[in-house]
Specification:
Layout (H helix, E strand, L loop, with lengths): L6 H53 L2 H12 L3 H34 L5 H13 L5 H6 L3 H22 L6 H27 L9 H14 L6 H11 L2 H21 L1 H15 L3 H28 L1 H8 L8 H26 L4 H24 L5 H26 L9 H10 L2 H11 L3 H22 L3 H13 L1
Helix pairs in contact: 1-3, 1-4, 1-6, 1-7, 1-9, 1-10, 1-11, 2-3, 2-8, 2-11, 3-4, 4-7, 6-7, 8-15, 9-10, 9-16, 10-12, 10-14, 11-12, 11-14, 12-14, 12-17, 12-18, 13-14, 13-19, 14-16, 15-16, 18-19
Keywords: Membrane, Transmembrane, Transmembrane helix
Subcellular location: Membrane
Membrane topology: Multi-pass membrane protein
């Protein structure tokens, strides 16, 4: 059963999946961005922003709640089957309601416009989410299946994209392929998990889950008042091309962030299971290990994105996307705050069932962000750069509130702001003079990127090896043992 599964193996599978999810979007996302251009991508990104608002209610917080609750009772097969069946049926009901609401929304607001077709494509995406059960696979730590399945689906998507998307007018085909890939990914997972867990209509419970699902819904979708809000304001006030300038660097950062955050998300089921057994000592030990492993990769990745922002945008998109360079640099700060906030919210407050307090914090900081956006708009200062800057400020306030509550009220010895974590940031600062030197020697965007990455990576890990960093040594020992 999942208890005996190797956490290192889970992290490796999750990291492999995240790495694949970085490489594919970088190659394919770059291809699509260059072929379709800022206008077509702006249409896709704006439609996706509206779709995401509806998806929030369709998802109904089941991912976070299901991940935590199934992790707690995963060794009891009968309870597991009943809980899975109850949550799945609730998910089907919420998605059907949202599907009807979305259909009505686009019919009354976009019928007869040029945007109607792309909004209609997202109807199929909402339908696909009826079968979304990845929360169950992750709670049972089936990362090997998730990884292999996702890679196969993505490869099919890549072949279809390269074959069918050839001109800027093919942005509808691009959006359609995304929806089809989502459906394949979800339906395969659904068939697999039903075969593994089973499905029942006996002894189902709904009412007792709803309250917690609503709290999980608000907690998990705080981005409505953060980055989603940014895109809505930009698209409504400045035009859809500004959404492209915002979303392109956001996608780059989120791709890298997904790989780095693998170590956090993989440990949530294990932490929930440990707390269910009332083992506080093991919980704190694992929490500290997660924080240190996260810091090892987070700070150099953020610094690397900052110093190579211009080159990344040119490689990923086209010169017309250069206004996105400063947005990407600010987004790297947001990436750091996201990582710390994720540990505090997911691995401390949520696994300790402090959803109500967490929701209050998220809403308060989200409202601060909303007020800041309104202020920027009225003052004529709203741009993709200022939009993400105020979102970073809101996230820093959120982190401060969560940290204070976790340390003072929950009495948890949070390890994320200690010196042994920030040494990785100090070493990463060496990337600035290294990159400056490389740019003085080379003019080619590709050469600057490759040489900088090689030199910075060598210096960073070289220093950690010389100083015998315990995380790096532990990782090397694991690989040497396998070899």
């Amino acid at each position: 059963m999942p208890k005996e599964k190797s956490l290192v193996k889970n992290v490796m599978y999750k990291s492999l999946l995240s790495l694949f999810n970085i490489v594919v979007p970088i190659i394919i996302g770059s291809y699509a961005t260059k072929i379709i251009g800022k206008d077509g991508m702006g249409e896709v990104f704006y439609a996706d922003t509206i779709y995401q608002y509806f998806l929030i209610f369709g998802a109904f917080g089941i991912y976070n709640y299901g991940l935590r609750e199934i992790s707690r009772i995963r060794d009891n097969k009968e309870k597991l089957k009943q809980l899975f069946s109850s949550l799945f049926i609730l998910g089907v009901a919420s998605n059907i309601i949202v599907l009807l609401a979305y259909a009505g929304f686009i019919f009354f607001n976009y019928k007869g416009t040029s945007s109607f077709s792309i909004f209609a494509i997202y109807l199929f995406s909402i339908f696909s989410n009826l079968f979304y059960v990845e929360w169950a696979n992750e709670a049972l730590e089936k990362y090997d299946f998730i990884t292999i399945k996702t890679i196969i689906v993505k490869l099919i998507y890549i072949v279809a994209l390269l074959t069918l998307v050839k001109t800027p007018e093919d942005y509808l085909i691009y959006a359609g392929l995304i929806s089809v890939a989502l459906f394949l990914n979800n339906i395969i997972s659904f068939v697999f998990i039903v075969k593994d867990i089973g499905f029942t209509l006996k002894c189902l419970t709904f009412r007792r889950h709803v309250k917690y699902l609503i709290m999980a819904l608000i907690m998990a979708n705080g981005n409505v008042l953060y980055t989603q809000l940014d895109k809505l304001f930009l698209g409504s006030n400045l035009g859809k091309d500004t959404v492209a300038f915002y979303t392109t660097p956001q996608n780059v950062v989120y791709m890298i962030n997904a790989f780095i955050m693998s170590v956090v998300y993989v440990t949530i089921p294990r932490l929930s299971n440990i707390l269910a057994a009332n083992d506080e000592k093991a919980y704190l030990k694992l929490l500290n290990k997660v924080a240190k492993s996260l810091s090892l990769f987070l700070f150099p990745a953020a610094m690397g994105l900052t110093v190579l922002a211009r080159e990344i945008i040119l490689l990923y998109a086209k010169p017309e996307f250069l206004p996105a360079v400063p947005v990407l640099q600010i987004f790297t700060i947001y990436m750091i705050t996201l990582a710390f906030e994720s540990i505090l919210s997911n691995q401390v407050m949520y696994v300790k069932k402090r959803e109500k307090v967490l929701i209050c914090f998220i809403i308060c900081c989200g409202l601060f962000n909303l007020i800041a956006k309104i202020g920027l708009t009225k003052a004529g200062l709203l741009t993709p750069v200022t939009a993400v800057m105020t979102t970073v400020m809101a996230n820093i306030i959120l982190i401060s509130l969560e940290f204070f509550y976790s340390t003072r009220v929950l009495k948890v010895d949070i390890p994320i702001f200690k010196l042994d974590k920030f040494k990785y940031l100090f070493i990463s600062l060496l990337f600035i003079p290294i990159t400056y030197g490389v740019k003085m020697i080379f003019a080619s965007t590709v050469m600057i990127t490759l040489v900088t990455m090689i030199l910075c990576g060598s210096v960073y890990f070289g220093i950690l090896l010389v100083t015998k960093d315990e995380v790096v040594i532990a990782i090397l020992n694991k690989f040497l043992k396998r070899a």
